[in-house]
Amino acid sequence: MKHRLAALLLALTLPLAATPAAAKPAAAPLCLSLEDRAEIADLMARYALYADAGNGAAFAATFTAEGQLIVRGQPVRGQSALAAMIDGKTDRTLHLPSAPALVKVAVDTVRARSQLVYMKDTAGAATGSTPYVGFAVYEDTIVHTPQGWKFAERRAAETQPIAPELLPTAASPICRERP
Predict the structure, then answer these.
(1) What pTM was estimated for this model as a whole?
(2) Is residue 132 within 8 Å of 118, Cβ to Cβ?
């Protein structure tokens, strides 16, 4: 009787062991709450405002402690260097950022792409010179810190290819509340 019971149990469990584990459902895309989207858009606006105002400390505070800004391949790394870059500028500028495309790539990490039009008065208002007008494309890695969203890296260039995670198939859905 023991042998028959053991054989029956073995017969019942053997197919389960031989069957591949049920396929896990595909992980749902990470969603980004409306609140997070608004905070990131505000971060980008403050970046431009602080740069234009020449406030290096406030500008640097939009980055993590080791954050970096890479403009045309030239990196400026760390809050001290970022603050010094802005404090040392002599040109008057006006940065006009666009709304960003955002994709959440990890629980506390977002990739973003935005465009920017900027004007620079290199000679000063007293000369009546025509301001320089330019544009840039920003590719960002933004992380959520205890102080809120901050730039870990910001790349600016006249043009750059779109990162694969920003293409439509990888778009982050909007959450109704922060996860």
Answers:
(1) 0.75
(2) no
Residues 99, 174, 165, 37: is their CA dihedral positive or negative? Answer: positive
Exposed e or buried b per residue across 156-172, where buried means at least 16 C-beta atoms within 10 angstroms of its C-beta: beeeeeebeebeeeeeb
Q: What is the distance in angstroms between the CA of the first residue and the CA of the last residue of the chain?
A: 55
Token pair in block for residue 116: 């920017």
Q: Are 156 and 13 in contact (CB under 8 A)?
A: no
| Pairing state between β 101-106 and 92-97 | unpaired
CB-based burial of residue 98 (10 Å sphere; 0-12 exposed, 13-18 middle, 19+ buried)? middle
Query: Pick from 64, 62, 27: which is nearest to 48 by CA?
Result: 62
Beta bridge partners of 102: 112
Cα separation, 54 vs 101, whole angstroms: 27
d(CA 129, CA 112): 35
- Encode pLDDT of 41-91 as tens digits: 999 999 999 999 999 999 999 999 999 999 989 999 999 999 999 998 878
Residue 150 has which token pair?
A: 């901050």
Q: Which of 68, 50, 60 is nearest to 138 (CA)?
A: 68
> Cα(86)–Cα(73) distance, rounded to whole angstroms?
18
